[in-house]
Design a protein that fits this description.
By secondary structure, the protein is an alpha/beta fold. It has seven helices and eight strands. It has helices spanning 58-68, 88-91, 94-103, 112-115, 136-146, 170-176, 190-194; strands at residues 41-43, 51-52, 72-76, 82-87, 117-118, 125-127, 150-156, 162-169. The strands form two sheets. A four-stranded mixed beta sheet has the order 1-8-7-6.
């Protein structure tokens, strides 16, 4: 039963003959080096990354990336643990063909687990608790010190497990600061792919 204290919002119908466009991807507000670090973090708690199962068909992964307009999918299990990542680079072109040939199967028989880049254990991460007072300049200095174009952000649950809650992407930060970013080289390892997630 609806709460009687709430009145319905004013509503109308789309007018016939008047176009209705899909929204453009949000880049984020303009920032500078003194802006809060959280202003440039891709927050997976608010905008969950697109995920897929390891045993899903590779064709399904490609359809999902196209539908969601993303260049990667995180691969998770039933317990929501990160298993790896599948990218456009690993799911299209000569790579899946070579994988299928090596496995002696048809390309359409490939599943995500056949081509995904497995989870690594040495990803560079920062902790969410350390970002409360941090500025964009601190993030840029961290990426420079690590020699990477991105860094994952984690927090801990009550069992002290890592929980992936966001990431910093140099390309996105540059766009928010009003600059242009350069395209990534093709990523071959999981670490390189994580560094290109936001492109």
């Amino acid at each position: 039963m609806p709460d009687s204290h709430f009145k319905p919002l004013l509503w109308t119908k789309l007018r016939r003959g008047v176009p209705c466009y899909l929204p453009k991807a949000a880049v984020g507000a303009r920032v500078d080096a003194h802006s809060p670090a959280l202003a440039v973090m891709t927050d997976f708690r608010r905008f969950a990354p697109v995920t897929i199962a390891r045993d899903a068909a590779l064709d399904e992964a490609n359809r999902l990336m196209t539908l969601c307009n993303v260049h990667y999918l995180l691969v998770g299990d039933e317990q929501r643990q990160l298993l790896g990542i599948v990218t456009e680079a690993s799911s299209k072109g000569h790579r899946p063909l070579a994988t299928a040939h090596a496995m002696g199967i048809r390309p359409r028989e490939l599943v995500v687990g056949n081509v995904m880049i497995n989870k690594h254990d040495d990803a560079e991460v920062v902790h969410l608790k350390d970002l409360a007072e941090a500025k964009v300049g601190h993030v840029l200095a961290t990426l420079k010190e690590l020699g990477t174009s991105s860094c994952l952000v984690v927090e801990h649950d009550e069992s002290d497990n890592h929980v992936l809650c966001g990431a910093f992407f140099l390309a996105q930060i540059e766009r928010q600061m009003g600059g242009a970013s350069q395209p990534d080289e093709v990523a071959h390892t999981f670490s390189q792919v994580v560094n290109s997630l936001g492109r």
